[in-house]
Design brief:
This protein is mainly alpha-helical. Helix content is about 55%, strand content about 0%. It folds into 2 domains: about 100 residues, no CATH class; about 60 residues, no CATH class. It has 10 helices and no strands. Helix 3 packs across helix 10. The longest helix is centred in the N-terminal third of the chain and has 17 residues. The radius of gyration is 16 Å and the shape is globular.
């Protein structure tokens, strides 16, 4: 993926496009997001999830949903304050102590002690790639299944039309 392709997808300045180019290409290589169709699907999802790379962390209210992160053993949130401490970060929101620790283990860093790192380059991209990889989303991208990818990322069809719009734009840029 080139800086020029990124600028065709969205109107980033040269510095932002260059930083994205490096982070995305590293993530693509590490997680075998290595075909144009896989890259288009990944980009479409992260474009939606991050508001075109504007958001690197969950906007915190706390909302009623966010309050329910506290004490959720399925997320590994077993200590007081874990709900907020391990709130969503990354281009695909990594949420919960267990996910932060699993991601950290995969990249050999202690993200349980440093959760804010997930909202910074290059980890913001790598966390999205790790999530993508651990949910086997390359296989779904290979069959062009935007609906199931969306469900695995978001739990439902939230934002599906926007994700489809980004997918079409990416496919146009990649000439697919």
């Amino acid at each position: 993926m080139t800086k020029e392709q990124l600028k065709q997808i969205w109107n980033w300045d040269d510095n932002k496009a260059a930083a994205l180019e490096v982070a995305l290409n590293d993530t693509f290589e590490k997680f075998e997001i290595n075909t144009p169709l896989r890259q288009c699907h990944f980009l479409a999802q992260v474009m939606h999830e991050s508001g075109c790379f504007k958001y690197d962390r969950e906007l915190w209210g706390p909302t009623e949903t966010q309050k329910r992160y506290e004490g959720r053993k399925d997320l590994g949130n077993v200590y007081p304050g874990d709900g907020f401490k391990f709130r969503g970060r990354g281009w695909i929101q990594l949420t919960g102590r267990a996910n932060y620790e699993s991601f950290g283990k995969a990249i050999q860093m202690d993200m349980g002690q440093n959760p804010d790192m997930v909202a910074r380059m290059p980890w913001v991209a790598l966390a999205a790639g790790w999530f993508w990889d651990t949910r086997n989303l390359n296989a779904l991208a290979d069959i062009d299944d935007v609906v199931t990818i969306t469900k695995r990322i978001n739990g439902g069809k939230n934002g599906l039309d926007d994700r489809k719009k980004w997918l079409l734009k990416c496919k146009q840029v990649f000439k697919l």
